[in-house]
Amino acid sequence: MEFKRGLYVGRFQPFHNGHLDAIKYVLQNIDELIVVIGSAQYSHNNHNPFTAGERIVMIRQALLEANVNLDKLWIVPVPDVHLHMLWVSAVEGYTPKFTTVYSNEPLTRRLFMEAGYKVNDLPLFDRKVYISTLIRENMIKNKNWTTLVPKAVATFIDEIDGVNRLKDLAQSDRIC
């Protein structure tokens, strides 16, 4: 039987329950999964408030809390290339070899398909609820967000004062 390693790309700003459900789903269908943290070079802005290292911690702690076997997982930060024709090559250069990509994002799907990869859809796990942009907005507006992320992620964001970081970043955007 052929060994199957998949790839799942996201920014994970922050890692939420939809991401966790997607990873659990993919791991049922493959031997190993590479979780690519996209836009790894960005942090401390409204769109990308958390560092790549913080996102790695969020993902690992959430997966440990959910009893996901980390022996089947790679977490790899990949910076943006800003040139679509080179992006897949950059991902290949940062990651172990993979056979299948799991994504619903249209550009990611198209670029990997054109590079010859098999691309599979992911079920949408409450996509209207689990949207990182809305979670960040809820954090800034003091609305519910902790039920939308794994408990370990909420705890970690609290430990790094992530909500106040986001509020400060939102404030600085209004001043500029």
Alpha-carbon distance between the termini?
Answer: 57 Å
The Rg value, from CA coordinates, equals 16 Å
Helical element count? 7
What would the average pLDDT be, to the nearest integer? 94
Structural class estimated from helices and strands: alpha/beta
Order of helices and strands: EHEHEHEHEHHH
Textual characterization of the structure:
- The structure is a single chain.
- This protein is of the alpha/beta class.
- A 5-stranded parallel sheet has the order 3-2-1-4-5, with helices on both faces.
- β2 (32-37), α2 (52-65) and β3 form a beta-alpha-beta unit.
- The chain has a single domain, classed as Rossmann fold (3-Layer(aba) Sandwich), CATH 3.40.50.
- The protein has helices at 17-27, 52-65, 84-94, 106-114, 132-140, 151-159, 162-175; strands spanning 5-10, 32-37, 73-77, 100-102, 118-120.
SSE topology:
Layout: E1 5-10, H1 17-27, E2 32-37, H2 52-65, E3 73-77, H3 84-94, E4 100-102, H4 106-114, E5 118-120, H5 132-140, H6 151-159, H7 162-175
Parallel strand pairs: 1-2, 1-4, 2-3, 4-5
Helix pairs in contact: 2-6
Concise summary:
By secondary structure, the protein is of the alpha/beta class.
Comma- or semicolon-separated keywords:
single chain, 176 residues, alpha/beta, Rossmann fold
